């Protein structure tokens, strides 16, 4: 069956044929082997929907056999394919299931990897406190030579710090991620993020130098989503430094690439930046882009981005739909606040040898989460008050 001289489609046909024959004889072990191989082939073809379906079959079989080790491994795999299908909630649940079993078996590497995946999903949702907890814990379990996961975790911690407006901390973690980046494109992605954070710190010269070097690297032409991200970030940083600069061509260039790639996350950023770009010069266009920002954030099921889009619309004073925007903003803000308050605010002390005070700072962030939520509520009241 594993004939490497055949192309992937031919190997899939062979696997399906073997599967039909073995299922008739009810040989579970052979079925498991073939289903696993079939999942691998579908993954190679980037047929993630098919790989997910086959992985689910494999998971049901492992549950039927009460094979805990297999359940954990297949759950991890199912989580990956859910992630590839942009179904992050389902991915998180399966990584969590895998992690709970790996913990029983005390499989340090797998514990670290599943915690890392959970942390990255939580960061994507803006759940920065729980993301930090899982990311730091993941580091304690991973081998120091596991550069792929360690770099990803450092990048995750940087994104979390940036999301909490701690740009100095973000740059620290981006530097660690860059140092361990497993390949050129991952290094470029981390450099882009670092440059973006430097821009927020008003370190414009350093920021622009990094962006320019990235765009000189020919490898970026093979990664249009990353190229669009760099173009957009660089243009927006230049404009933030000097609002008289005309960077519209670059902003629209990044938008066009993102539309071609159907990059929902990227589109949200482009619409956000374009809305802000036109905020003081063309209110109609600013509102149009803010509406698109709202629509794509809802399509991507990103409540934090939806909240930002609603805030932009309120500040632009879109009177025609003002009340519904205010009402939705208050409702969504209240929902997010309640979810945050229900999260754990404390956890067992993390035994991780980090730079002085970093662990204490992380604990402090968690302890003060309720205070931060109260500030968010006050900010909401101010926004509504100013807009009414």
Automatic annotation (TrEMBL):
Q: Which UniProt keywords apply?
A: Coiled coil
Coiled coil residues, start to end:
338-379
Name of the protein = Tetratricopeptide repeat-containing protein
